[in-house]
Design brief:
- The structure is a single chain.
- The protein has 145 residues and is mainly alpha-helical.
- The chain is built from seven helices and no strands.
- The model has no long low-confidence stretch (mean pLDDT 88).
Length: 145
């Protein structure tokens, strides 16, 4: 407290009095880790179920890539496509025919890593991103899908 100006010591002391000591704070933080992990696991499971249901409903192909990237890629694809639909169709000027064309382009990108890389993109940028995807990002097109 001696390094604080005299007029700020009382307020700082009052603030310190309402906080846990460093040891108690660390113990509480470490004890709470398990509940945070449980909450995060439950949240991820909900997001994954929503992404899987969405992919099935809209006939999206399964993603390809490393096993640990598949679920993350599916969640990223679902979130970006949902954000794009809201921005372009619901709030924008697109009609369902325009959206159907974008969905067809999205179906040609099965690489999970591509969707993960685009996870922070704005929904309005999705068409441009799909057009910019390289052949390495696109799978072989199956005309009998």
């Amino acid at each position: 407290m001696s390094d604080r100006p005299a007029d700020k010591r009382a307020g700082f002391a009052r603030w310190l009095g309402s906080r846990d000591c460093t040891d108690c704070w660390k113990a509480n933080r470490d004890a709470d880790t398990e509940s945070k992990q449980q909450w995060l696991a439950a949240r991820r499971a909900e997001e994954q179920q929503a992404a899987d249901d969405w992919a099935e409903k809209f006939d999206m192909p399964p993603l390809e890539g490393p096993e640990k990237a598949l679920q993350w890629g599916a969640r990223s694809r679902h979130q970006l496509m949902t954000t794009a639909h809201t921005a372009l169709v619901i709030e924008g000027t697109w009609d369902e025919a325009d959206w159907a064309k974008l969905e067809e382009k999205a179906r040609t990108i099965p690489r999970a890593g591509w969707w993960i890389d685009q996870r922070d993109a704005a929904g309005t940028d999705l068409l441009e991103l799909l057009d910019a995807a390289t052949e390495a990002d696109r799978g072989t097109e199956n005309p009998f899908r």
